[in-house]
Amino acid sequence: MNASSKYWKICRISLDKDRVGYEYRLVPKAQKFFQQTLSDSHHRKSKDIQTKLLSYFHEENSAIAGFCLRCYVSYPILKACQKIDSMFAAQKSFTYRELLPFVLNDDGQTPIVLDKDGKTQLLLDKNGKTQTIAYEVFGVNILQTYKHDSQFSMSLENWAYLRTKQNRELKNFLSEFGFKLLSDWALLNRARALQLERLSMRDRHLVEVFHLIYRRDRLKQRQKGVRRCLDPHETQLIEMLAHLQQRDVIVKNTVELIKELKQVATQLRQYDIWSYRAALEIIEPDTGNYVLRADLPHDAINEIDLEQQELLQFLHQQLKLALVSAIELEIKNSIAKLQKSKRYAPLAQQFIPGLQLYYCQGQSLKEIAPQLGMTSWDQARRVLNPGALVLKVRASCVQQLLESILKKASEKGLTKIPPEPQYLKTLAELIEAFADEEVFFEATAEIKAGKNRSLKSLYAQELRLYFKQHT
Predict the structure, then answer these.
(1) Pairing between β-strand 290-292 and β-strand 281-283 as defined by DSSP bridges
(2) Residue range 62-87: average pLDDT?
(3) Would you say 188 and 207 are in contact if contact means Cβ atoms under 8 Å apart?
(4) Three-state DSSP state, 327
(5) Which residues contact 334 (CB under 8 A, 6 or more apart)?
(6) pLDDT score recorded for residue 311
(7) Confidence (pLDDT) at 3
(8) How many other C-beta atoms are found inside a 10 Å radius of the C-beta of residue 136?
(9) pLDDT by residue (tens digit) across 386-412?
(10) Mean pLDDT across the stretch 267-285?
(11) What are phi and psi of 281, to 5 degrees?
């Protein structure tokens, strides 16, 4: 599909259940208008074309120019839904197809114009008269809110991508699966070493003590099925005050402690190295509407930067490849190690069957032991040791991911080979944090969860796929 055809072919929901959930449909009126009005468009920049079409749509109330633009924004709408799908692949029970009805609701046939204020969508009938439309078309809403005449405006594609990810109905749907705006406590809980380096010494102590107490109790909460980061309770806060005092950091009381922790959380929001996972908008208390975060400059939002999107996609792809490779490598290494052991060599052949019982049937090591001819839970733990395997896979995965990213960085001229020591150290920390957040925090928590373990992590999924392919 060439660039111009995106202005007359619309991406819309497909009712064919055997398809991917969407289809591309020709909009003849849009094609005719575009080719007649912008026949020399192949000589123009995309921005110039869009400026002309937006002018027709807003100033001349041209429904046909609107069709061209609605076709164009349908592509980033689809892309945003697919991106959400890939971002939460290890933690969800939905696909991008279930997101499409919330945002890809344009049939490409209904002529729509705006009222004089540009705030209301109106249906244009055959006689050229307008009437209230039965439902708002999200693609038109994107055009309504796009400030194309501002020197600080982003591209229309980026704006459509951003608006889709911040669509209220789509957010409400995601909230049913636990994906909500990150709270101050969630931001503090996941703060990494690189972020702490940017804080003052006092603020570092605050975060470190918060981690010491809050993470300890957070693990217990997760084991009970509580996924949301709850507000710290009074007992925790008092314990934090005591630890801070030992570090010569004096905070008057728990009220002041809450205040200081929230101030640190505000800094972390600004420094958030995982901004692509955080919301770009927040709810304005007075109106209840979503507005862009004040800490994000309008002309430098990494989330909707196309090159950044490609990089993030590359990271997720390489993580998946590295994880698959690391699982295969470390299972082979574990079996080889058992085979060399005089004590456990006879049980080496039971390594994969044991892990299958653990990850496929959810059995405990105590239940697995007699089935595989092992004498006790302790022996099963020493032979299978799921926790140790996770750590080995993590180390191998991070190393492979580091090598892939260094190669990519070198190709883009971002670093030389071998890289500077500080660059390598910082990159390694980022990759470890990324891999932990995406895979290994959940994989480790599952093992510690006891009988109530869910085993739904990406790690567990890839292990089961490995068993299916190799047994």
Answers:
(1) antiparallel
(2) 89
(3) yes
(4) helix
(5) 351, 389, 392
(6) 63
(7) 74
(8) 13
(9) 989 999 999 999 999 988 888 877 776
(10) 47
(11) -130, 155
- The whole-number average pLDDT for the span 435-450 is 81
State whether residue 334 is helix, strand or coil.
helix
pTM: 0.44
- By CB atoms closer than 10 A (0-12, 13-18, 19+), residue 294 is exposed
Instruction: Identify which of 370, 325, 366 has the alpha carbon closest to the alpha carbon of residue 350.
Output: 370
Length of the chain: 471
Residue type present at position 159: W
Q: How many angstroms separate the CA atoms of 396 and 356, rounded?
A: 21
Q: Residue 166 has what DSSP assignment?
A: T
Cα gap 458→290, rounded to integer Å: 32
Residue 314 identity: F
How many Å apart are CA 433 and CA 427, to the nearest integer? 10
Q: Tell me the two tokens of residue 25.
A: 């449909």
Q: What stretch of H or E contains 122?
A: strand 121-124
Nearest to 237 by CA among 305, 185, 291: 185
| Calpha distance 163→149 (Å, rounded) | 18
Measured between alpha carbons, how far is residue 436 from residues 134, 213, 294, 330, 459 in Å? 46, 20, 29, 18, 11
Q: How far apart are CA 391 and CA 443, in angstroms?
A: 10
Predicted pLDDT of residue 239:
93
Work out the end-to-end distance of the chain between its first and last CA atoms, rounded to an integer number of angstroms.
42
Q: Bigger pLDDT: 90 or 68? A: 68
| 213 DSSP 8-state letter | I
Residue extents of the structural domains in the chain: 4-175, 184-273, 307-470
Rounded to whole angstroms, how far apart are CA atoms 31 and 26? Answer: 8
pLDDT at 418 over 90: no
Residue 439 contacts residue 457 (beta carbons within 8 Å): yes
Helix/strand/coil percent split, the chain, to 5:
60, 5, 30
- The 10s digit of each residue's pLDDT in 114-137 is 988 888 899 988 888 888 888 889
Q: Which two tokens stand for residue 78?
A: 């689809």
Compute the average pLDDT of residues 16-38. 84
Asked if residue 386 has a cis previous peptide bond (ω within 30° of 0), the answer is no
Spatial separation of the C-alpha atoms in residues 88 and 424, rounded to whole Å: 28
Query: Is the CA virtual torsion 45, 47, 49, 52 positive or negative?
Result: negative
